[in-house]
Amino acid sequence: MLLALAGCGSAKPAPTTQATVPTSTISATASYAVPNRITVAYVQRVLNELESIDAQATRQILTSRTFGQSAALDLRATFGD
Hints:
mainly alpha
């Protein structure tokens, strides 16, 4: 069985370069598209997500006891430059 599987591969090695995708702190199921009419529910949803991102950055800083790049990116995303 192993001999049969060994013959299935290509003579050329597979490319080793892979794209790296940055991690996102925004859930894929939530819609943050700006609606035609801004509602209290929309504003609350956005504020809740910003608070969640801030809390995640705070946990990273407290856990690692350093101000790492991931925390810096999260805080920059919520508070701007």
